[in-house]
C-alpha cells in the first residue's frame, strides 16, 4: 500500500506556484489576489478561511479577508459581491459556506461573476466543466484529479464508484472521472442513499471515492485487493484523549482498508490540503486569464 | 413486453399543451412564440426544423423560421441571436445543429441568453440542471424522463446503464436519472468507448439507455429479462426496398430484444417525437416564467 500524502503534494504544488508568482512579479506585475468573505463566527469556517489566507501568503498571493457580522443582511452581502465582481484588482473570491440561516446560499452563489468564481460553485462554471469547456472546477474534485495525476494512477477504463452525489464533491468528481482526459475515461457509478447493494458494488471497484459523510463507512470487506481509495470525508468523532475533545476521521475505516488497497488517502492530510491548493490553482487561472481570458 | 409509444404520448402531451395555450389566449394573452434558426440546406436539419414548426402549429404556438444561407457569416448569426435575445415577443429560440464548418458552435451556444435557451444546451442551464436548480433541461433527456414518468416506470434504486456520454443525451440523462426525484434516484453507470465489459454490465441492468449511435448495438444477450430499454439511436442504414434508399434503426436490435424486456421504445416513433415535445414544454416554461421568472 502506498499512502497518498496530500499534505506533501499540496506543499510541492504550492512551491511550484510560488516560483510562478515570483516570475510574474519580478517583471513588475502585481501578484494574484484572492478575497475570502466570512459571515459570522462558525469555528470550523473560521479555521478553513484562516487556512486559505495562510496558503495565499505561502505562495505570494495577496489576500483579503472580509469578516462580516453574523447579522449581516443578504442585501449587504450581495452589495459586497457586486463590488468584488467589478474590482479589477481582485482575481477571485470565495464566500465561505455555510452562511447564516437568514441568507439564501443559492442567491449568493448566483450573484458571483462566473469569471471570479474560483470555488467553481456557480452553475455556469459547473455546466462548462460538464460540457468540456474551460472552467473553474470545484476545488475538492479538482484537488482529487490533481492527486491522481501526480501519483500516475491510471483511471482509463477502470471501474470507479463514487459514494455520494453532492454538488460540491460526488456529482462533479463523477463527471470529471468519466469525461475524456487523463485522469478520466473511467467507468463511473454514482451511489447514493437510494442505491442497493452498496457493499458489493464497492467490492468490485478499482477506485472508490468516498464522499458520503459517515465515519468509517467503507469497511475492509467492501474493498477489492489492490483498489485505490480516495477518502473525502472529514468527520468529527468524540475523543476524550484529545484536548479539543474530538478527532477527525474519514469515511473509510483506514486501519483495516489500508492493508488491502494499493493507494489510500489519510484523514487528515489527504484530500483536505489538496482542496485549498486547488483554490490557489483556480485563482492562478483567473490571474492569467486561462479560463475566460 | 409493452411498447412505449412515443408518438402517441407526444400527441397526448401536445393536446394538453394546446388546451393550456387556449386557456391563456382566451384571456387576451399572446400565444407562446418559438423561433427556429436554420443555416444552410442539410436535408436532415431541414426535416427536423419543419417538424418542430409543424408541432408548434399543432399546439397553437406562434413560430418563426429564420432560414439563412449556407455562407452566412458567424457575425451575422451572432447579430441575429442578439436580436432574438432582446425581442420580448420571442419566448425561446433554437439554432439547429450542425452548423456549417466556418461557424463555431460553442461561440453560438454561448451567445444565446440562458433565459431563451429552450434546447437546454447553454452551460448555465446545464449547470443549473445538474445542481438541482430550475432550468431548461436538454430536450432529448427531458423527453425520456417524461416518458418514464407517464408510463409509471419506477427508477428509484434501479441499476441503470447509460451507453454514451454526449453533452446532449448520455451525460445529461445520467445526471437526471441519478438525481433526487421521480423519475430519478437510480444507480447510474455511464459506459463509453473506454469502458470494459460493456455486454455484461448491460446484462445486469434494470434500465438501459442506448445513446451510442451504432445500429443494433444492444443485442438480446446484453439484456436482462424484464429490463426497460430506451433507444435513443436514430441511424440510417441502406435499404433498397425503400424509396428513400434507407431506413431508420436504433441502437438496439429491436426484434430480438423486444421479446425479453418489459418496456421498449421503437425507432422511429419512440424517443424522437418526445424530443420535439420536450422543446414545446421548455418553450411553455419560458412563456410562463417558471424557470427564470
Number of helices of chain A: 10
- Gross geometry of chain A: globular
- N- and C-termini, Cα separation of chain A: 42 Å
Task: List the secondary-structure elements of chain A in sequence, H or E.
Answer: EHEHEHEHHHEHEHEEEEHEH
Q: Which chains have the largest interface?
A: A-B, 35 and 34 residues
Mean pLDDT of chain A: 97
In quaternary terms, these chains amount to homodimer
**CATH architectural label of the largest domain in chain A:** 3-Layer(aba) Sandwich
By secondary-structure content and strand pairing, the structural class of chain A works out as: alpha/beta
The tally of beta strands of chain A, per DSSP, is 11
CATH superfamily of the largest domain in chain A: NAD(P)-binding Rossmann-like Domain
Low-confidence stretches of chain A: none
Q: Radius of gyration of chain A, Cα only, in angstroms?
A: 19 Å
Supply the number of structural domains of chain A: 2
Q: Roughly what fraction of the amino acids of chain A lie in strands?
A: 15-25%
Which strands sit side by side, in order, in the main sheet of chain A? 1-11-8-7-5-6
CATH class descriptor of the largest domain in chain A? Alpha Beta
Keywords summarizing the entry:
16% strand, Rossmann fold, 11 strands, 293 residues, alpha/beta, 6-stranded parallel β-sheet, 3-stranded parallel β-sheet, globular, homodimer
In words, what does this structure look like?
Chain A has 293 residues and is of the alpha/beta class. The first copy, chain A, has two domains: 27-115, 3-Layer(aba) Sandwich (Rossmann fold), CATH 3.40.50; 139-273, NAD(P)-binding Rossmann-like Domain (Rossmann fold). Chain A has helices spanning 6-25, 43-59, 74-86, 105-111, 123-130, 139-150, 170-178, 198-203, 254-258, 271-288, and strands spanning 2-3, 33-39, 62-68, 92-95, 159-163, 187-191, 207-210, 228-231, 235-238, 246-249, 263-264. A six-stranded parallel sheet of chain A has the order 1-11-8-7-5-6. The longest helix of chain A is centred in the first third of the chain and has 20 residues, at 6-25. The mean pLDDT of chain A is 97. The interface between A and B is medium-sized, with 35 and 34 residues. Strand 6 (187-191) of chain A pairs antiparallel with strand 6 of chain B, so a sheet runs across the interface.
Amino acid at each position: 500500500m502506498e499512502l497518498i500524502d496530500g499534505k506533501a503534494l499540496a506543499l510541492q504544488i504550492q512551491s511550484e506556484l510560488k516560483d510562478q508568482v515570483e516570475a510574474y512579479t519580478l517583471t513588475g506585475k502585481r501578484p494574484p489576489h484572492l478575497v475570502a468573505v466570512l459571515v459570522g463566527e462558525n469555528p470550523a469556517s473560521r479555521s478553513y478561511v484562516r487556512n486559505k489566507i495562510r496558503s495565499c501568503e505561502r505562495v505570494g498571493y495577496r489576500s483579503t479577508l472580509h469578516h462580516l457580522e453574523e447579522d449581516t443582511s443578504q442585501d449587504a452581502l450581495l452589495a459586497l459581491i457586486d463590488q468584488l465582481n467589478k474590482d479589477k484588482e481582485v482575481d477571485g473570491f470565495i464566500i465561505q459556506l455555510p452562511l447564516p440561516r437568514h441568507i439564501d446560499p443559492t442567491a449568493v452563489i448566483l450573484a458571483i461573476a462566473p469569471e471570479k468564481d474560483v470555488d467553481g460553485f456557480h452553475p455556469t462554471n459547473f455546466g462548462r466543466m460538464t460540457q468540456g469547456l474551460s472552467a473553474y472546477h470545484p476545488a475538492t474534485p479538482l484537488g482529487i484529479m490533481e492527486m491522481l495525476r501526480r501519483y500516475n494512477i491510471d483511471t482509463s477504463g477502470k471501474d470507479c464508484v463514487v459514494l455520494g452525489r453532492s454538488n460540491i464533491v460526488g456529482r462533479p468528481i463523477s463527471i470529471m472521472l468519466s469525461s475524456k482526459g487523463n485522469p478520466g475515461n473511467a467507468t463511473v457509478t454514482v451511489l447514493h442513499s437510494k442505491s442497493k447493494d452498496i457493499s458489493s458494488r464497492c467490492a468490485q471497484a478499482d477506485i472508490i471515492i468516498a464522499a458520503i459523510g459517515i465515519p468509517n463507512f467503507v469497511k475492509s470487506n467492501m474493498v477489492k485487493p489492490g483498489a485505490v481509495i480516495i477518502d473525502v470525508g472529514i468527520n468529527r468523532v468524540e475523543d476524550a484523549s484529545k484536548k479539543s475533545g474530538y478527532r477527525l476521521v474519514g469515511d473509510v475505516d483506514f486501519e483495516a482498508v489500508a492493508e488491502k488497497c494499493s493507494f489510500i488517502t489519510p484523514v487528515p492530510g489527504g484530500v483536505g490540503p489538496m482542496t485549498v491548493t486547488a483554490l490557489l490553482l483556480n485563482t492562478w487561472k483567473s490571474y492569467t486569464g486561462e479560463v475566460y481570458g
